[in-house]
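Internal QA ticket QA-208
Title: Verify multi-chain structure generation after dependency bump
Assignee: T.L.

Test input:
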Amino acid sequence: MDTRDTPEQAELRRAARQLARELGPTTVADLDDTTRSKRLAAAVHDAGWLELRDGGEDGGPLASGVEAAILAEGLAERVADTSFTGAVLARDLARRAGAQHVDGTGVACSPDLIGVAVVDGPVTTTALHVVDTARDGSEAAYVLVPEGDGHRLASVPLDRTGDGARDGVDLTRTIQVVAPGATRRVIADQGQRLSRDDLVAWNALGLALTSADLVGLMRGVLDVSVAYASERRQFGVAVGSFQAVQHLLAEARCLLEGSHSVALHASWAVDSLPATDACAAGRVAKAYCARAARTVCETAIQVHGGIGNTWECIVHVYLRRALLSSQWFGDDGEQLRRLEHERLGVPAGGADGLS
Amino acid sequence: MDFRDSPAEAELRTRFRAWLADNNPGLPASSTDDEYWARQAEWHTALYDAGFFGLSWPARYGGHDLPTVFDVILDDELAAAGAPPRPSLGYLVQGITTHANDAVKDRFLPGLISGLERWCQGFSEPDAGSDLASLRTTATRAGDDYVVDGHKVWTSYSDVADWCFLLARTDPDGPKHKGLSAFALPMDQPGIEQRPLRMINGITKEFGQVLFDGARVPAENMIGEPGEGWRIAMTIVGHEREPGELGYVARYAKTVKGLEQTVRADPGAFRSDQRQDVAWAHVQAEMLRLHVCRRLSERLDGVDHGPGSSVDKLLMTWVEQTVGSAALAVSGSGAALDTDDVALKTYLYSRAQSVMGGTSQIQKNIIATRILGLPTA
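Actual output:
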């Protein structure tokens, strides 16, 4: 066992952090600077990071879940407002289906954001949501169509008209709505059906990447908060010199460290453990990281005091992104419910084929 | 980045698993029953004799010279087999290895590691808890000996100890951090009075008070140099805060496994909040297991974490208290009706974790100032 980064992984971590520092938003106003965000998106694209989970010569992914998670974490440290996780997940799903990925295709989520959307016929009921990829002009989204004892990959067009893009909680990633009544198009050039195992393994990647995103957010918002507490003065001294404030930040640091450990393991498990075990590792990571990130971001707001409750202060951007990353693939409550089913024999309630 | 066993690690795992299948003493968890302490020496000796103890310590003194990540394998397998955790004395080994001269190392490390000689740790005093450096027990030079007078408390297993790793004031006139020295003091002598303390969960074997009234320790038993006591104490408490050094992951995993078995036998008999507490305890125990994997891996290049152990101590405390609360929740009325209920004892014992080895508040002070770099008032 050696859980340290390889030199290549350490370099990737450094590169992601540096890019996010250079081109990520540092103020809330920066979020409106589309010149900057377009440069960020182009840089992520040009680095080849979106293609990490594309198929290599042996059919397996070009890079492991560890590399993908390192990038997700590094970008989230500075709330980088560009598509990464959604794009990587879309390409990973296409690879598993043996399909040729079409640029600009995201993944449509079930309305509760917990899994990939399964549709059988036109989308007639609740609109499906595409997280993370819309800002870069996605045109379509993958959905699953039941077939035999598995699923086949299909795509549906996105609503590119005025109502299609929705402002969700997260100011750094747009939610795109699949047009009601959209007709699915089964992708023609692929061979295999996606088995239950394929989807469980893909779900493990989703859990690992959203957990890594939360770790990055915690690290970033804690840095911002420690810096603020060291500068902000009350009673003639820095507020960070008060034990009451110090202890809040110390607890946050511990939550970050614990989260790092579970998220690291989940990202390794994606390609190193059987699908069911990888998914179980992802559930542990997501349950821990989702709870921790909520506490750490709330601590950040508290440490910033009044200013922390204003729109102009960057910390709510972290909290908002954490809320979306928590929901995506299921929050802590959802993971605990699944763990109760898987470990304690409690009957499953969900009907998404993963229970 | 790899959580998998190396070939050498896999070999140890296979060997240890096979050995455990025949040699699990079936002892209760240490935190709940005096029987554990009565038979702990036997368990220590069995592990040592079979070659499964002190893996990362120097072979010269009875260890195996392996990287500390190998300890993860022991803890995994102990937990899986429902066996008792390995005895926690790595922090004393670290203290002696880091600071003592060769004569002291040669004399004391083999017995400490093999379990042939039992040790306790004499640090805290009635008026020196978090403020350890204010301790008042004195060791006064008298010929070839030092004469010790004072009062130690929370001295775990003092009643069965052959030796005490004693911290005492040798220079009453110097600054309080500078006048302390450390000794290996023999416990079997006149001038020492033992008073057991009963913990809130009823166990009596763990805590003790020790009163020294003219007890003697040979000067050659000093560990480190005169006045080096504070530095030695900081080495020891640093390691005493590391779950990887203590082997506690196995203890928590064992408890969680028991809770899961209880619920799985009849899930419908438990409310959803009780089941959720157990699932969350599993998440917490897994977190600590993986965190120890990461921390011990970081040590492969010989990096000293320093204040990082305070982070690990807080995480460990949260895990122990989450697991203890889950046990209480699952037991329900059982804990209310029976003072000997194991879940009740586990829960009550868990409250000590945020005090022993340095309170959670002290750990947060250390993290805030030495890791986060926040200003001091």
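Spot checks passed. The first strand of chain B starts at residue 119 and ends at 122.
Status: verified.
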